[in-house]
Amino acid sequence: MAIFLDKTSRIVVSGMTGAEGTKHTGRMLAAGSTVVGGVNPRKAGQRAEIGDLSLPVFGSIGESVEKAGADVAVLFVPPPFVKDAVIEAVDAGIPLAVVITEGVPVHDAAAFWAHAAAKNAKTRIIGPNCPGVISPGKSNAGIIPADITGPGRIGLVSKSGTLTYQLMHELSDIGFSTCVGIGGDPVIGTTHIDALEAFEQDPETELIVLIGEIGGDAEERAAGYVAEHVTKPVVGYVAGFTAPEGKTMGHAGAIVSGSSGTAAAKKAALEAAGIRVGRTPSETAALAREILAG
């Protein structure tokens, strides 16, 4: 099983004809994903050569839904155009929109999130500024390397792209049901809690790894959710134990105010909810391995 993405997913890539879109579309295809085409209004009706395939270029996400049955949109469009692209995906009713783009203005992210909420849209937005989603052996929507790990029993949700990759590698012998990179911006479409809820309902996910980082209170809220709603074991890691006080570090959301948002405070909140927390990625992987070994 998997969450959000599986072997039946049909991906359209908005920005596929750009350099990054072309490169990562090729990688998604190599991972076994079904990519039905790309979106570029200026090149609508043309075809793009990706590896051995010739893929159609649509004028809009809506057209890709109508003509090719797309149900996942992966967005590589430049930051000024992300808001309109996400709104287009929402209005097309696409079930999953993965926003890879970094540097999206917070105001724009809030606007497309509010648009989806106001329409009570069925579209799940992941990102912006995220590596995407991979269900190993089934499908890959984004930029997560597909050769790090295979299918298995662990569900992973992470703010950090690089830490996503590291934990996937550390636990590659066990494997993952789905790995979700939610991004670290102040306004994101899918939270730790959303992924925790989905993993709790997935019968083949036996353990959940939650990766957070300094700043904000997302991890504290996730801890509260785990305490009340999650029956599966959860292992956590919080990046930023060595970060200097009073500095903004890394992602745009990693802002620490006083004692609020520190790694130590987050670790305490997670442990109070019964979540075992590692101080390093390797220690976190060892905890997960220990729990699964029973």
Written overview of the protein:
This protein has 294 residues and is α/β, with parallel strands linked by helices. It has 9 helices and 14 strands. The chain has helices at residues 19-30, 61-68, 82-91, 106-118, 161-170, 192-201, 218-229, 263-272, 281-293, and strands at 10-14, 34-39, 47-50, 53-58, 72-75, 96-99, 124-126, 132-135, 139-142, 151-158, 176-181, 207-213, 234-239, 276-278. The protein has a 7-stranded mixed sheet with strand order 3-4-2-1-5-6-7, sandwiched between helices. Strands 9-8-11-10-12-13-14 form a 7-stranded mixed sheet, with helices on both faces. Helix 5 (161-170) packs across helix 9 (281-293) and helix 7 runs parallel beside helix 8. The two termini are 22 Å apart. 52% of the residues are buried. The mean pLDDT is 93.
List the helices and strands and how they pair.
Elements: E1 10-14, H1 19-30, E2 34-39, E3 47-50, E4 53-58, H2 61-68, E5 72-75, H3 82-91, E6 96-99, H4 106-118, E7 124-126, E8 132-135, E9 139-142, E10 151-158, H5 161-170, E11 176-181, H6 192-201, E12 207-213, H7 218-229, E13 234-239, H8 263-272, E14 276-278, H9 281-293
Parallel strand pairs: 1-2, 1-5, 2-4, 5-6, 6-7, 10-11, 10-12, 12-13, 13-14
Antiparallel strand pairs: 3-4, 8-9, 8-11
Helix pairs in contact: 3-4, 5-9, 6-7, 7-8
Following the backbone from N to C, one meets helices and strands in this order, namely EHEEEHEHEHEEEEHEHEHEHEH
Shape: globular
Task: Give the total of beta strands.
Answer: 14
Taking the sheet with the most strands, its summary is: 7 strands, mixed
Which structural class matches the secondary elements?
A: alpha/beta
Largest sheet, order of strands side by side? 3-4-2-1-5-6-7
What oligomeric state best describes the polypeptide chains here? single chain
- The gyration radius over C-alpha positions equals 19 Å
Low-pLDDT ranges = none
- Mean of residue pLDDT? 93
The helix tally amounts to: 9
Helix coverage percent of residues?
A: 25-40%
Content of β-strand: 15-25%
Cα distance spanning the termini: 22 Å
